[in-house]
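Sample 3 of the quickstart, ligand zinc ion:
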Amino acid sequence: MIPQPWTPRPTPAHDPLTPSRDVTHRHFQAGEQVIVLKGVAGGELWGDVMRIVAPSWHTPTDEDGWRLRDATGGAQTYVTAHPRYLVHLSRRCPDCLIYLRAMEDRLLPKYAGHDSLVDCGWYTVTALNQLVHIADARSGR
Ligand SMILES: [Zn+2]
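Result:
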């Protein structure tokens, strides 16, 4: 990851919610627009908006994942993510809304004083363009 000087580095928020989400692979389908939450900006949740392209094996978790296209991703235009990293944007989905609200309740008070963008640093991208949540990276696979 390239350090970005304009990004403040407050204490990263622990994220126990994403790893514990129970989301099946078929909860999503190709063509849907999703967001991967990465932090807070201007008092709202912030993340990368991407479009689901096709099923793809998520090697860090050895489970079915989705290949995503990030139009602003540059060298990382295509990444593969685990379904639990994704939140529906293209339709209002109760399961995803519950997760969104829980993330808001947890994060927004914590960064209430920050007007600028806060990247919580939960995600990295491997050399094989696999998006990995910090909790999955720690599992040693
Ligand atoms: Zn959903």
